[in-house]
Amino acid sequence: MRILWFRIVLALTLALGLGLAGAQAAPGKRLPVKVVIVTTFEIGADTGDMAGEFQPWVEGWPLKHEIAIPGVRHVARYSDDGVLAIVSDMRGRTRESVAALILSDQFDLTKAYWIVSGIAGVDPAVASVGSAAWARYVVDADPIYELDERDMPADWPYGLYADNAERPNVKGKAPGSSAMVWSLDKGLVDWAYGLTRDVGLPDSPGLQALRAPYAGDPEGQRPPFVLRGDALGTVRFWHGAHRTQWAHDWVKLWTDGAGTFTMTDCEDQGILDVLDAHAASGRIDRRRVLVLRTGSNYSRGPLGQASLPHVFHGEGLKAGFDATFRVGGLVARELVAHWDRYATTLPTATPTGRSR
User: Fold this and answer.
1) How far apart are CA 344 and CA 330, in angstroms?
2) pLDDT digit string, tens, across residues 48-76
3) Residue 46's Cα: distance from chain center in Å?
4) Distance CA 72, CA 101 (A)
5) What's the predicted TM-score (pTM) here?
6) Closest Cα partner for 270 from 73, 90, 75, 69?
7) Would strands 289-298 and 160-162 be described as parallel, antiparallel, or unpaired?
8) What is the C-alpha separation between 288 and 253, in angstroms, rounded?
C-alpha cells in the first residue's frame, strides 16, 4: 500500500510540476512589458545610498518588485504598470545581459519601448556636464586599427583608423564584427526630444566651477540642457583633445556626415548590436529603441590645457545620474500613461517639434 501511495503522490507531483512549467513557458503567461530601462551600473545598494544609474529609476518610479533573470547578474526591478529596469553591467558584459533578457521566457517584450539610460563623457564643443542627449545615431568604435602615435606618418592626425582601411578618415569595413552605425527611429527620437527639451535640469556651484575653465566652448559653458546628439561606443575608456577630435571625425565618417559626436560611452554599440541581432525574431521591435546619455564629465580638458588622468568629479556624476531619470522618466511615463495609443502606434513629433 505504501508503494502504491508513493507512486500516486509521485505521479501527481510530476503532473503538477509539468503543468506549472508549461504555464510559465506559455507566451500568454509572460509578464507584459511596456518600457525596458537599460542601465549599466549601480553604486552600492539599489536604494537608500549614493545613487548610480539604476537607483534613480528604482526609487523615482518606483520599481517595487525584484526579479532574477538568468544570465543577468544584477537583480532586475519591475513595476505593476509594466516598466522593467535592468543593470546590464558595463562594456562586454552588456551584450550578455541584453541577450539574456531578450531570450528569457519571463517577459513579453514584443511591444516594449527601450530606453538606454546612462552617463557618458560629453564633448564640451556640443554640450555641458549635466546635459542630456537623445541619440539619432550610435556609432561603434571597437573594430579599429591602432598605430602607436610615435610611429605614425607625420601627416596623420592620430593613429586610429578603420578596419580594411590604410589611413585615418577612410571608411573601411567590419564584416563579421559590427554594423558600425545604427540609426534610431527619427520620429521617435524627435518625439522624445520635443517632450523633454524644456525639462529644467539642476545647476549648482560645483557644476559652474567645472564649466568655468571652458571659456573657448560656449555650449560647454551652458547650464545643463536637453539636446539631440549622437553616441560613440567603445569598450575602452579614452580622454583628451586628440581623441575627441578623432571621435568627432569617426562619427562624421560612419554617418556620412549626418551625425554629431556628442556623448562617449562603453555600451551603446553592444546594446544596439544585440537588439539588431534579435529584431527578426519578433521578440522585440527594433524601431522602439531610444538612447539617452547624460554628461558626467567632459571628453577633453579646456582648449589649450593638458588633460588630467582623473576626469570624474562628484558633482558631474551626481548631475549625470539625476538627469537620466528626470529626462528619461518623463518619456517613460508618457508611454505608460497612454499605452492604449502607443502599444500599436509609435509616437512622432509634429512639424513644429512638439510631440503628439
Assistant:
1) 20
2) 898 899 999 999 999 999 999 999 999 99
3) 18
4) 7
5) 0.89
6) 90
7) unpaired
8) 26
